[in-house]
Amino acid sequence: MVRDGIATLLDAAEDISVLAQAADGHEAVALTREHRPDVVVMDVRMPTMSGLTATREIVEGTDGEGPRVLMLTTFDLDEYVYEALGAGASGFLLKDAPVEDLRSAVRVVSEGEALLAPSVTRRLIADIARSRREKVHARPESVEALTPREADVLRYIARGLSNGEIAEELFLAEQTVKTHVGRILTKLTLRDRTQAVVFAYENGLV
């Protein structure tokens, strides 16, 4: 019932088409390979194969060009959130989010942006990153490769700002910010903005 309800709500949007539904992780991977959707809306916990494993299998080998995964979770402190981000998920949304938030999340993720529910991002990532940072004695060389401006942009990314908002904060053209974001991801060998957020927290940039 929940799956049918979500599919109906998404399909009702003029710019979103639901291609298929999967009952478990194995089916999700198979249907993704068959239909090649722009976005996979994935439950964290599923039978036979978890959403984490399914996400990893969907994302592996795509070089950022394949389907993007938006994870749905019941709890804003689900212990699997961080692992899912590491597996390549592009976003996280709580199941109690308003309908329009879900539709908006699909659109954002499809455009290659990261989307994390604020309660997930600020508490979970900060808490996990803080515990990991205590074990880090020196920043990796990749951080030192960033220019001061790129480091500033990365800090704003970690705070959840869009390219347009960062441009306003730094008095830059939005295209310039987009260029900085691309260079940051390349220098740090990160897949997308979501991984950039995690990296920034882990390495004490925010």
UniProtKB/TrEMBL annotation:
HTH luxR-type domain span: 139-204
UniProt GO MF annotations? DNA binding
Signal sequence segment? none
| UniProt xrefs under Pfam families | GerE (PF00196), Response_reg (PF00072)
Residue ranges of domain Response regulatory in the record = 1-110
SMART domains named in the record: HTH_LUXR (SM00421), REC (SM00448)
Per its UniProt record, what InterPro entries does this chain match? CheY-like_superfamily, NreC/VraR/RcsB-like_REC, Sig_transdc_resp-reg_receiver, Tscrpt_reg_LuxR_C, WalR-like
Q: Which UniProt keywords apply?
A: DNA-binding, Phosphoprotein, Transcription, Transcription regulation
Domain of life, per lineage: Bacteria
List modified residues, type 4-aspartylphosphate: D43
From the UniProt record, give one GO term of the biological process aspect: phosphorelay signal transduction system
- According to UniProt, the name of this protein is LuxR family transcriptional regulator
